[in-house]
Amino acid sequence: MAKSHKASFQYESSGTAHVGTLEVQGSGVDTTLAVKTQFGTGTTELGRRSLNEVACALARRIEKDAPR
């Protein structure tokens, strides 16, 4: 059974602080990260990067790609 952990995180984009939620699923090389922000959602593989680094980068990408 795959493990799943949920948490909130804060990130900065364009000089403004935002709050998002993240869910980590799996373990080891099969770990995926799902991020939800006010701008949308996205999923990526965690790989060997830090959780915070990946969550913030994905949140910024979601915001950048959001329709204006």
Main traits of this protein?
alpha+beta; about 70 residues; four-stranded antiparallel sheet; about 20% helix; elongated; 1 helix; single chain
Describe this structure as you would to a colleague.
With 68 residues, the chain is α+β, with helices and mostly antiparallel strands. 22% of the residues lie in helices and 47% in strands. The protein is built from one helix and four strands, in the order E-E-E-E-H. The longest helix has 15 residues, at 51-65. The mean pLDDT is 89.
Structural class given helices, strands, pairing? alpha+beta
Mean pLDDT: 89
Major sheet: order of its strands?
1-2-3-4
Alpha plus pi helix count: 1
- How much of the sequence lies in strands comes to over 45%
Intertermini distance:
40 Å
Anisotropy-based shape = elongated
Number of E strands = 4
Q: Tell me the major beta sheet.
A: 4 strands, antiparallel
Rg on CA atoms, Å: 12 Å
The percent of residues in helical segments reads 10-25%
- Topology pattern, helix = H, strand = E: EEEEH
Unreliable runs: none
Summarize the structure.
This protein has 68 residues and is of the alpha+beta class. It contains one helix and four strands. Helices cover 22% and strands 47% of the residues.
Give the SSE layout.
Elements (H helix, E strand, L loop, with lengths): L3 E10 L2 E10 L6 E6 L2 E6 L5 H15 L3
Antiparallel strand pairs: 1-2, 2-3, 3-4
